[in-house]
């Protein structure tokens, strides 16, 4: 199993550009999430999904869209990038049960100029 | 909403010594889970240890153990016999005891340095 994969690893955008961060998992996990990590703030939840076709907002959803058309994939879209979206983005997945471990991808470092 | 606070932005320890990282949280829920994650320079998030709030016994994983004080809403991580490979950012995290169970609330992180 590859686990949770994210592409790209690094990305530089100009203000106003749009892009999609890709996330895929091959563990047949129902739950997938997107977090952003900023210095001194830990990781904050952007959006999450409890299954194909079901998504919901997390703590910091503004400026981001998600969709979940398959169990495996959970892309994160930046509609119009802003410098405040400069961050490291992590995708995560887990199977059912609150005690179960959440598996994280390797992260994407995004810089918006 | 739950909050998690790590009041020590940085800590250091000598190799082979013991260090304790602090974490406090705020919640009105009675059932929940607590986690410690390690993030080395590779950026990968690695689960270190987890605790179920309804269990009084503190969790232990090899050299890692927790001191869980439910009434005080405290969840500290003790690393014994510290090794150079323990140097990393450590995050405390909270998860509600709910059916979706996918949302984690993280603290700010503590950067641990291990001195040889």
Round the mean pLDDT of chain B to the nearest integer and report it.
94
Number of strands of chain A: 11
Low-confidence stretches of chain B: none
Work out the oligomeric state of the chains in this entry: heterodimer
Q: Which protein chains make the most extensive interface, counting residues with beta carbons within 8 Å of the other chain's beta carbons?
A: A-B, 28 and 27 residues
Q: How helical, in percent, are the residues of chain B?
A: under 10%
The structure class of chain B reads mainly beta
Any idea what the radius of gyration of chain B is?
Answer: 14 Å
Number of helices of chain A: 0
C-alpha geometry of chain B: globular
Overall 3D shape of chain A: globular
The biggest sheet of chain A, with number of strands, parallel, antiparallel or mixed sense and barrel status, is:
7 strands, mixed
Helix-residue proportion of chain A: under 10%
How many beta-strand segments of chain B?
Answer: 12
* Major β-sheet annotation of chain B: 6 strands, mixed
First and last CA, distance of chain A? 36 Å
Structure write-up:
- The complex is a heterodimer of chains A (113) and B (116).
- Chain A has strands at 4-7, 10-13, 19-25, 31-38, 42-51, 54-57, 64-66, 76-78, 87-94, 103-104, 108-112.
- Chain A starts with a strand and ends with a strand.
- Chain A is an all-beta fold.
- In chain A, β9 and β10 form a beta hairpin.
- Chain B has 116 residues and is mostly beta strands.
- Chain B is built from no helices and 12 strands.
- Chain B has strands spanning 3-5, 10-14, 19-21, 24-26, 32-39, 46-52, 60-61, 64-69, 74-79, 88-96, 105-106, 110-115.
- In chain B, strands 2, 5, 6, 10, 11 and 12 form a 6-stranded mixed beta sheet that branches. A 4-stranded antiparallel beta sheet of chain B has the order 3-9-8-7, with no helix packed on it. Chain B has a two-stranded antiparallel sheet with strand order 1-4.
- The A-B interface holds A 31-33, 35, 40-45, 48-50, 58, 88, 90, 92, 94, 96-102, 104, 106-107 and B 4, 6, 9, 33, 42-45, 47, 50, 52, 91, 95-109.
């Amino acid at each position: 199993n590859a686990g949770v994969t994210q592409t790209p690893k690094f990305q530089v955008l100009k203000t106003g550009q749009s892009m999609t961060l890709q996330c895929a998992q091959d563990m047949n996990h129902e739950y997938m999430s997107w977090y952003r990590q900023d210095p001194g703030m830990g990781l904050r939840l952007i959006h999450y999904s409890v299954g194909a076709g079901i998504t919901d907002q997390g703590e910091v959803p503004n400026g981001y869209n998600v969709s979940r058309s398959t169990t495996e994939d959970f892309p994160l879209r930046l509609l119009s990038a802003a410098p405040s979206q400069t961050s490291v983005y992590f995708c995560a997945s887990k199977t059912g049960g609150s005690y179960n471990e959440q598996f994280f991808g390797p992260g994407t470092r995004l810089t918006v100029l | 909403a739950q909050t998690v606070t790590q009041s020590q932005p940085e800590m250091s320890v000598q190799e082979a010594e013991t260090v304790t990282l602090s974490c406090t949280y705020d919640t009105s829920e009675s059932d929940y889970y607590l986690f410690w994650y390690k993030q080395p320079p590779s950026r990968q998030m690695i689960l270190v240890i987890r605790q179920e709030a309804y269990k009084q016994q503190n969790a232990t994983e090899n050299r890692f153990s927790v001191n869980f004080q439910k009434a005080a809403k405290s969840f500290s991580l003790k690393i014994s016999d510290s090794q150079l490979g323990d140097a990393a950012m450590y995050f405390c995290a909270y998860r509600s005891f709910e059916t979706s169970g996918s949302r984690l609330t993280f603290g700010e992180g503590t950067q641990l340095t291990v001195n040889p």
